[in-house]
Amino acid sequence: MKRIIKHWARPISLVGLLAIFTLPLTVVVQQLVAEIDTGITFTRQEKLGLEYNYALRKLLEQVIAHRSQSQSSTAKRDRAKIKATQTAIQRTIKEVDTLQSRAKNALRTEDNWKFIKRDWQDILNQPATSDPNASFKLHSDLVEKILAQMIHVGDTSNMILDPELDTYYLLNTLILQLPATIEHTAQIQAIGLSTQTQKFELDDKAKLMYLYSALNSQIDTIARARRTVFNYNPSIQAPLQAPARTSLNRAREFIELINIQAFSSVSFQSSSFPPPGEDAIKSHFQLYDAIVPTVDRLLQVRLDYYNERKHRAIGFTVLVLVAIVGIYAALARNFAQRKRAEVAVQRAEEQYRSIFENSTEGIFQTSPDGRFLSANPALVRIYGYDSAEELMHCLSNIKEQLYVDPTVRDHFVQWVEEYDRVSEFESQVYRKDGSVIWISESAAAVRDAKGQLLNYVGIVQDISDRIRNEEERNRISEALYVAKEAAEAANRSKSQFLANMSHELRTPLNAIIGYSEILQEDAIDLGYDDIQPDLQKIRNAGKHLLDLINDILDISKIEAGKMELYLETFAIELLVDEIEATIQPLITQNNNTLKIIKVNSLGDICADLTKVRQVLLNLLSNAAKFAENGTITLSIQEHRSDGWVELAIADTGIGMTAEQISHLFEAFTQADTSTTRKYGGTGLGLAISRRFCQMMGGDITVESEIGKGSTFTVRLPLQVSPSLSETSPTPHSPTPNPNAAKILIIDDDPSAQELIHRALAKEGFQVLTASSGEQGIAMAIEHRPAAITLDILMPKTDGWSVLKALKANPQLADIPVVILTIVDQKNLGFALGASDYLTKPIDYKRLNQVLKKYLTTQQERILIVEDDDATRELFKRTLEREGWNAITARNGKLALLEVAAQQPDLILLDLMMPEMDGFQFITELHRVEAWRSIPIVVVTATTLTPSEYLSLHQSVEQILQKAAYSREQLLAEVRSLVVERIRQL
């Protein structure tokens, strides 16, 4: 507080100061209270919607019961029962009418409610002798309107947008799942009743299949919601556990009955449907009745929480205002202390003077024209003078009299003036006696209020001893470098031999395998079926031999320390699915069964995908080889908190002894030498697998028992450290593509040049290198590269000068320049025209992404036909991120215009749209011969009938249900179809 007061040059208004503190507080509190009030209004709206839907639930139950009674074969005898149901419905309608006075404006239910009452009146007005099918249709239409009203209320009352996970799933069950489940169960029950009086037709069976499928899906959704809710909020498990279990059990029993009686039996037993159907419907309504008070209680708890927050906010505001008033009073008292504050300032100046005089580092103040304005005793000692006055008198021109190289002073001044400060600027200077020393200067520019330069202030250190030590270290390092180069030359000879062996062994084998495949195809074409088995044996033997050679070369590379890790992030679950599909044929060869167990949810891992896949396939193939008529289990458990994943492969094979296990991971060794003759192999697979895991920071362990089987456990870190990947010798560069984009590397460091060259050449670029700024500018003029990477710290011409020269040349100014340097000065780089700025050490994946960003590529066109703006934009952004050119249309008519303007490679199509829907669009599209080959993927939220599915599958490539597919599934489908389309063209 005192520090603030001492800087005030004139009295200030304390009232104004009070306003400065209170006004922001008032605004913040007002916004907080408004936010809480919004939550309260939101929750009250949900409670009103819940009450309204509960009344509709009673009406739904009564209408379904009335429909069932009307369809019953004993309807004529049960007129009294039907009449009682009608009376109950009339009573429920009056209850809803009472709710309408409160809900019609808030929930906008009046129009839909009028239609519901009108449909009920139509049912009452129907003659007693009317067609049962017509009666069923009227009842079903009324049920549909009630369900629609419940969904409408869910939307307008915010229930469908509930922010909490437990209440969201419970409300979703009340609004969407349970009512639809009850209706589908009732419709199946009605089919059973109708077939008691008339023949079970094919249309009845088709409808029954559709209802059976829908009911199955809804029951699964309710079950998943129950698990999610109970896991998230165990406190609500007690009131809901029993009714939820009963509801699901009754539903599954009813589904099983349908499957047995309608689809598995020879004859259709319709009389078996009504009683179990009634039990299922009753249990569903009981579950509904259990959920409603639970949700109402949760909403009330939320309301109480909002009110409590509101009261706390108001109370906190009062406390803060009291504190502000106290501060206001304190400020009034402290104005009398300003004099004492001035004394404190004087004392601080004296302390600064003490530091200036007694510091062990030289402190100076110089003028812009190069004269000393002040110098402390330490600076006088460093430069060898007797006093500060002598130093300032003798050094009237710092640039010419002090610095060994006067141009260094120019660089020093330039940096200080441009950036206002410089740190650890090293240079050589003369002492009074003429000797030369090394100094390190750190300085800052002092400016006035208008920004005009007044002087420079800074410190000086004598670093002569450090420079001498560094020179000695450099001499030693140079000697070590020469020795290292000699050792690496010998190592490169070994690596070259290994590479030659790899080429010489694999080349003829690849030819054998390739020609055997060609001969097989020719034999099929010419009808020589009798030689097919022999050709297949040649092909299999070649592949087996190639696998053995690959193992030998892998173990050789590992032992030579030349095996590299190529780290990438991938999904564990996708890898497991891929391995399952790959290994399945080998599993079944010995009549084994593969079982996959995912202990918990699986995320991503950053590791060498190829090596992890090779390890798992090797362990699974061993398990399949040593087990017959058994079970092979792959268990995956992710320990996300510890950063590890464990993959265990267990088999019921021959097992091993402790002695055999001790030699298991030795190269060219098998647990039992007799297994080589019986099962084949080199004995390298397990040794290679374990070394791969150890390279990634993990390991493989084994447990086994003779006659019972073995379990191999692979343990890997979820984030493999890049430092575990050893740098390998420079590989032979492939012949560059003459049409590839040219990248010019300007860097004086040969090692940095080589690393960047390798990273970019691997991505398909043509790479040019320059070792100095002058050479880089000349090569840029000669080759006109697509992009340039530029180091800053180079001798003679530094990177900033090169960048200025490139941007000043009209022929080169438009070439993107990416700065790669250890100096973190992005603002300067962008100001001079750099396109991007990366600091060393370089992330080469990031470098590749940056360069490709500035190189144009051809893109395939995807047409998105969707009337919903949000969904259309989501699809567009998703596809454009994957590099496709996405165009959009909001309905079928506009989409036809887009197709006519430029034919797309694929169409993503919604079905329900204004003006022209998806069905009409497909019909119009296929009228044009040239457009019939365009692949179409339907993405819709509409529930399709069996006939609609059949119709669409004749015209489109795929049908995806909205909210039932992942982003990866959509992209995979689009990618597959676009590639196929390009191949066809």
Attribute tags:
five-stranded antiparallel β-sheet; 22 strands; 14% strand; 985 residues; 60% helix; alpha/beta
Describe this structure in words.
- The chain is extended, with a radius of gyration of 41 Å.
- A hairpin with a 5-residue loop joins strand 1 and strand 2 (372-375).
- It has 31 helices and 22 strands.
- It has 6 domains: 30-310, no CATH class; 360-462, 2-Layer Sandwich (Beta-Lactamase); 469-548, no CATH class; 563-721, 2-Layer Sandwich (Heat Shock Protein 90), CATH 3.30.565; 742-853, Rossmann fold (3-Layer(aba) Sandwich); 861-984, Response regulator (Rossmann fold), CATH 3.40.50.
- It is of the alpha/beta class and 985 residues long.
- Mean pLDDT is 78; it is low at 4-11, 726-737 and 961-967.
- Helix 16 crosses helix 21 (685-695).
Summarize the structure.
With 985 residues, the chain is an alpha/beta fold.
List the helices and strands and how they pair.
Layout: H1 2-5, H2 14-71, H3 79-107, H4 110-124, H5 132-156, H6 165-194, H7 202-232, H8 237-264, H9 274-334, H10 338-358, E1 362-366, E2 372-375, H11 377-383, H12 388-394, H13 398-401, H14 406-419, E3 421-430, E4 436-447, E5 453-462, H15 464-526, H16 532-559, E6 567-571, H17 572-589, E7 593-598, E8 604-608, H18 609-625, E9 631-639, E10 644-650, H19 658-662, H20 673-679, H21 685-695, E11 699-705, E12 709-717, E13 742-746, H22 750-762, E14 766-770, H23 773-783, E15 787-790, H24 799-808, E16 817-821, H25 826-831, E17 836-839, H26 844-853, E18 861-865, H27 869-881, E19 885-889, H28 892-901, E20 906-909, H29 918-925, E21 936-940, H30 946-953, E22 958-961, H31 967-984
Parallel strand pairs: 7-9, 13-14, 13-15, 15-16, 16-17, 18-19, 18-20, 20-21, 21-22
Antiparallel strand pairs: 1-2, 1-5, 3-4, 4-5, 6-8, 9-10, 10-12, 11-12
Helix pairs in contact: 2-3, 2-5, 2-6, 2-9, 4-5, 5-6, 6-7, 6-9, 7-8, 8-9, 15-16, 16-21, 17-18, 18-21, 23-24, 28-29
